């Protein structure tokens, strides 16, 4: 089994308006390619911060991180950007859609920054497959503000997986969805895992969904 993530966090300092909080103390995680991992825990334990670290969005912590076999502190800015666009799919709560663009253009944004080998006819096929599986074809010409919260959540999810990344980091991807659409999202995630050996890491408060992953990791607040 190929180790895809090797993360050791000594400490992450989170600064709020009122205090400075230490989270993820002495946290250790190893992930092999193709695993499905759920992360659970109470608010403030560092679940979203952990996803940001794994997704190379947050490098302000004490520790070491090896991703795809490379120490991340040795990567150039351009390589970090390329990995975030092509190798890591983000479905994060703060992943805002651009309100001046249609839902379709929002979903296709990652293609603009793709390498030449990622462009071409495959774009159309991948796009059609994703929007059909999630059931959002009817909102493609709408602007985000014309959509419901659940519709926007599904559009964010589509954008996160459109490049068929090696790792998908999902932060409460089903929180605002009804039962039918929640199942669509989970089914598509697990289908990608099975077909492409995509590594799935999901933060969720839904224990039923968490238990459908290979492993469940519980984060505790630092004392």
In words, what does this structure look like?
The chain has helices spanning 47-54, 77-86, 103-112, 121-134, 149-161, 179-196, 207-210; strands at 3-15, 20-23, 27-32, 36-41, 62-67, 70-71, 88-91, 167-171, 199-203, 215-219. By secondary structure, it is an alpha/beta fold. It has a single domain (35-61, 84-219), classed as P-loop containing nucleotide triphosphate hydrolases (Rossmann fold), CATH 3.40.50. Strands 1, 2, 3, 5 and 6 form a five-stranded antiparallel sheet that branches. Strand 5 and strand 6 (70-71) form a beta hairpin. Helix 3 runs parallel beside helix 5 (149-161). The chain is globular. It starts with a strand and ends with a strand.
Radius of gyration, Cα only, in angstroms? 17 Å
User: What does the main sheet amount to?
Assistant: 5 strands, antiparallel
CATH superfamily: P-loop containing nucleotide triphosphate hydrolases
- From the N-terminal CA to the C-terminal CA, the straight-line distance is 35 Å
Helices, by number, come to 7
Mean pLDDT: 90
